[in-house]
Specification:
Length: 704
């Protein structure tokens, strides 16, 4: 009898250890399916309830979670539409029948997603100081029903800019509540998951701006499934990590990826060996010390106990992101110099990562299947790192190629070029959502009818997605889309700088572009963890469009060398009828001059003449320039396209004389000059250059 009691005691202890191990799975390896079903209580508001989902009992997130977890678990749904976390809110969760049902359920795992309704003006502004204590009381009351319960708190799902209170407080309060939820998780020692990050970049999944559709609910279910089981599909890395990739030298290197929760990850490169462990969300990252020795045959190893990834022939050198619209995407085979240079392109130290769209934004209707793929962020083809060969450079950006080739010739180290340009893309499509939501929310609203966005871009997008049955169908020209699909996958991958050729699709409104360009710089700098990241951009060339004079001058004023923002002039390379001039080699090399002079300290003139000031000298005007040494006319003739005006703003052609230190202007029709301009024609034949043959920029300025 004593032996039977002893054996039964051992069996019960063993079962309790197995049970405890399952509940603690994320701290170690992936949990095994328990023999006894574990009860999972999903507590929340209308999003947990499934409001807006036609068959919520099948497609709501708790129901989808049940299917993912299988028969080893029993999932209970306790969502109450309109419920607040705050006890003094307008519909406190702790006063609802769903709360009492959750107490009776006594879940072994309790997933809580509350706070959305607390963004209401009747709740957060009035009782915000009580949120943390009210949340802790809720947890305590549920724990009293099952002292061994594991609690998983969720960072809230996003609220779209389409919400009627978005700008009047909801956006800010939502962020403050997220921070409060994180504080509750720390204080209660609960696990924290994130419903926000993966859904924030998918506004198409929120038909009413608040409640996810079945696909969005499925993402929530996957998030909870991963947190409960620790299963994230094993070790995997961002797509940019491949053989022949180039790593940036002389900076600390962040290497990151995903693996199952609690797994140990080991990383080795160039004698450095680091290890870390994944968090509850399967995320991990390490920071390697900077590599100072350039080379072409390093090996990066990333491994767990179950999987080993080896990246071979890794180079260490200089990495640049080359981005923008069609003039950056313009391929070497299309350039005037392509036929000459493609056969000679054979350089293993120049490596290319070419992110090309699956569907070009030509004047066609995309099939519905393409629209669906675009919504799912499947816009770009899989890319791979390639050495520069005639085959690989042929379809690569001509501007980027000539930029990289000049760097290779001057620096003698490996150069990696990442190109993700998209024809016709707008500046706003490259800016991150958080920036636009806080600094320019009006550009997000009803974007296909929004005058901040160029009508050509809106029209082309509407045509491309015409066959989509989804009223929220997305497009590469939509604000934020290309950040989310072309920049976000590159986050934390170290680059030396950005080469940018874009503006044609924003030239209708240069004042809006001025705002967007500053946001764009900030987006790139956040993405690559460098608040001084150099941005080298191309000024628009010449084309017979009336706003381009003003736009080019606006771009000139956006250049700020103190802020590592540099502009290459291209107005001498334009085509009066074609927005895609074929002379791309000079553009790439002029951008490379800025990089070599300002990023690498090379002694060369980085730019053509840039307007400095205009001084009145009697009835003549003396104009001085930065980078204005040895000024002359490019064609050997008279310097042309300077104009002067009095206060009435009526400009007349001026005679230009190159003198020591600048250009002297005079015009018999202008007795009291007050304004000066140069190259002020959409398609200009301006011809002033400096001693390096680099052209002067369009400008308009006051005469002092």
């Amino acid at each position: 009898m004593t032996m039977r009691i002893a054996r039964e005691w051992v069996r019960l202890v063993s079962l309790s250890l197995i049970f405890a191990g399952v509940l603690a799975a994320p701290a170690g390896s992936v949990a095994k399916t328990p023999k006894k079903p574990l009860k999972v209580a999903c507590i929340g508001n209308s999003i947990t309830y499934g409001t807006g989902i036609a068959d919520r009992l099948r497609d709501g997130y708790p129901a989808q979670l049940q299917r993912l977890l299988g028969e080893g678990y029993e999932v209970g749904s306790f969502g109450k539409p309109g419920a607040c976390l705050l006890r003094r809110g307008f519909r406190p969760y702790n006063e609802q029948q769903e709360y009492r049902d959750a107490l009776a359920f006594a879940g072994d795992i309790v997933v809580i997603h509350l706070g959305i309704n607390d963004t209401d003006p009747r709740a957060w502004p009035c009782y915000r100081d009580e949120f943390v204590s009210d949340y802790l009381q809720l947890i305590d009351s549920l724990r009293a029903c099952n002292p061994k319960a594991r609690f998983i708190l969720a960072r809230m799902t996003p609220i779209s800019d389409r919400h009627h209170r978005f700008q009047s407080g909801t956006k800010q309060w939502h962020g403050e509540i997220q921070q409060a939820i994180e504080q509750v998780a720390r204080l209660s020692k609960a696990d924290l998951i994130d419903f926000y990050d993966s859904l924030y970049v998918r506004p198409d999944l929120f038909p009413d701006g608040l409640h996810p559709n079945p696909e969005g609910a499925g993402i929530m279910a996957q998030t909870v499934y991963g947190a409960i089981t620790g299963n994230y599909g094993g070790l995997h890395m961002p797509e940019i990590y491949q053989d022949y990739m180039v790593l940036q030298r002389n900076v600390p290197l962040i290497v990151k990826g995903r693996a199952d929760a609690g797994e140990e990850v080991r990383v080795s490169l160039a004698g450095q060996k680091l290890k870390t462990r994944t968090n509850l969300r399967g995320e991990w990252q390490v920071q390697l010390q900077q590599l100072t020795e350039a080379g072409e045959d390093y090996e990066l190893t990333v491994e767990t106990a179950k999987k080993r990834l080896v990246y071979r022939h890794v180079a260490v050198g200089e990495v640049w992101l080359c981005s923008g619209q069609s003039n950056m995407a313009f391929m070497l085979r299309q350039a005037a110099s392509g036929a000459r240079d493609i056969p000679q392109a054979d350089d293993p130290g120049l490596r290319l990562y070419n992110m090309q769209p699956r569907w070009e934004t030509n004047a066609v209707e995309w099939p519905a299947s393409a629209c669906d793929s675009v919504n799912r962020h499947l816009y770009f083809r899989p890319a791979s790192w390639q050495k520069a060969t005639p085959a690989s450079v042929r379809n690569f950006s001509a501007v980027a190629y000539y930029f990289g080739r000049m760097l290779r010739d001057s620096l003698g180290v490996p150069v990696g070029l990442i190109c993700n340009a998209v024809g016709g893309s707008t500046a706003e499509s490259w800016v991150d959502r958080e920036t636009l939501e806080t600094q320019f929310p009006n550009i997000l609203r009803d974007w296909l009818k929004n005058d901040f966005i160029q009508d050509w871009a809106r029209g082309r997008a509407a045509l491309n997605i015409k066959q989509s049955g989804n009223p929220l169908s997305r497009h590469p020209y939509q604000p934020c889309y290309l950040y989310e699909t072309a920049v976000r996958p590159l986050l934390d991958y170290a680059v030396q700088g950005v080469v940018w050729y874009q503006g044609e699709s924003n030239a209708h409104n240069w004042t809006t572009h001025e705002r967007l360009f500053q946001m764009l710089k900030g987006t790139f700098r956040k993405a690559f963890n460098n608040d001084r990241l150099p941005v080298i951009f191309a000024q628009l060339s010449s084309l017979d469009r009336p706003t381009w004079t003003w736009f080019r001058d606006s771009q000139r004023q956006l250049m700020d060398e103190r802020d590592a923002t540099y502009m290459a002039v291209t107005s001498d390379l334009g085509d009066s009828l074609d927005v895609h001039p074929r002379q791309k080699q000079p553009v790439g090399e002029r951008m490379a001059r800025w990089a070599l002079a300002r990023c690498y300290g090379k002694a060369l003139v980085p730019s053509g003449p840039l307007f400095e000031k205009a001084l009145l000298d009697g009835n003549k005007v003396m104009v001085t320039f930065r980078y204005g040494e040895t000024l002359h006319a490019a064609d050997g003739g008279e310097v042309r396209t300077f104009e002067l005006a009095e206060e009435d703003g009526l400009f007349y052609p001026a005679t230009a004389e190159v003198v020591s230190g600048g250009v002297r202007l005079q015009c018999p029709q202008v007795k009291r000059p007050r304004l000066v301009r140069y190259g002020w024609q959409p398609f200009t034949r301006a011809n002033l250059v400096n001693g390096d043959g680099l052209p002067a920029s369009t400008f308009r300025g006051a005469v002092d």
